[in-house]
Design goal:
Shape: globular
Distance between the termini: 50 Å
Number of strands: 9
CATH class: Alpha Beta
CATH superfamily: Formyl transferase, N-terminal domain
Radius of gyration: 18 Å
Strand content: 15-25%
Number of domains: 1
Strand order of the largest sheet: 3-2-1-4-5-6-7
Helix content: 25-40%
CATH topology: Rossmann fold
CATH architecture: 3-Layer(aba) Sandwich
Bound molecules: 5-O-phosphono-beta-D-ribofuranosylamine
Number of helices: 6
């Protein structure tokens, strides 16, 4: 049976490498989705160049043209709804999402965060993790609610952290993983396999494996 196509809207503020990873998965036929629109909040976002290259409809909607936060996010909602967007993916969108957008897309907005939530929410998750001295960090895809990186967790992946890591080295290691994890979360959504239950997200057809990951690995014997 052909999977149905998921209509996606993307919101970004910067370089858009996660946006690119999503484009690549769609073009490779591994993600049954169509990107109906990219919206950026600043005209200089490199994500726009990526949209142009792949003939994706794109808009710059800057907050300066709106009277209030409510007006701003209502303008974004109008454009998404006009194009029948079903799911909104935040890809490096550097704003706290306003109520009109959350109300219009309940449990239909995803975000990727570069840490294992609920650890290190907000800005510079990688720097926070490196400075804290944790041994494992990673990334999280979650649904967006009204808080900062607080919504139901969909999927997470981990990388080891070394005491020599800087924000830059850890960011690079996590980013590679982000580019795999975000399309995977979108794929699960497109396949209708995600169900929000309270704070959590149940993934149908997924069996939890027994076992554990230890960093550094346990010595044998
Ligand atoms: C990523 O690290 C993502 O986790 C965070 O913002 C960054 C965006 O990078 N939310 P890019 O614009 O996708 O390259």
């Amino acid at each position: 049976m052909e999977a149905r196509m998921l209509n996606l809207g993307i919101l970004a503020s910067g370089r858009g490498s996660n946006f690119q990873a999503i484009i690549d998965e769609i073009e490779a036929g591994r993600l049954p989705a169509v990107i109906k629109l990219l919206i950026v909040d600043n005209a200089g976002a490199y994500a726009i160049e990526r949209a142009k290259k792949h003939s994706i409809d794109h808009l710059h909607i800057g907050p300066e043209a709106s009277l209030s936060r409510v007006d701003y996010f209502s303008a974004i909602v109008r454009e998404l709804q006009k194009r029948e967007v079903e799911l909104v993916a935040l890809a490096g969108f550097m704003r706290i999402v306003g109520k009109p957008l959350i109300d219009a897309f309940p449990n239909r907005i995803m975000n990727i965060h570069p840490a294992i939530l609920p650890a290190f929410p907000g800005l510079h998750g990688q720097k926070q993790a490196a400075e804290y001295g944790v041994k494992i960090s990673g990334c999280t895809v979650h649904f967006v609610d009204g808080g900062v990186d607080t919504g139901p967790v969909i999927i997470q992946a981990a990388v080891p952290v070394s005491p020599d890591d800087t924000e830059d080295t850890l960011s690079a290691r996590i980013l590679k993983l982000e580019h795999m994890l975000y399309p995977e979360a979108l794929r699960l959504y497109a396949e209708g396999r995600l169900r929000v239950e309270g704070r959590g997200v149940r993934i149908s057809g997924y069996e939890m494996q027994d076992g554990y990951i230890v960093n550094p690995p346990l010595r044998k014997g």
